[in-house]
What does this fold into?
Amino acid sequence: MTSWFRRRTLGRLSALAVAMALAASYGTPQAHATDIIPVMLDQARVLKLPANLATLVVGNPLIADATVQPGGILVLTGKGYGVTNLIALDANGRVLVDHLIEVQGAPDTVVVYRGIQRESYSCTPFCDRRVTLGDTPDYFDKTLKQTTDRSSSAQGGGARGQLGPR
It folds into this structure.
């Protein structure tokens, strides 16, 4: 390889490295490891927002949902596994809050695999069925239907256990 070719290649690589460093530092400040907010799947977490909040953005609403309540209270709900971000802006577009939200599974959940079939159980301390993202559709649907039927019956809307004239 000629020295001219080496210098040209190294020059291009140096320019690429500088461009990548500038691109990484451009824009809003990045969240740091201390800015991670853990939320359990299917659970809510309450946070206080700055008083001058004008805009709230959740990077991926399939992972977490954010609802602003009166008094600057934010309710974060874990919707799906993963990491997304939460950005709060003031009326001038300045970043007030920039945090990562990490949605995790509940620590008491036991996952049972039978080949490619997956079932989840909540074990606190006894194990009961718990529908969770990623469970086999047949298991998920049957468990969810039982839960829905039970709730409907308890509220008087189900066929079984319904009181009234016959």
About this structure: The chain is about 25% helix and 35% strand.
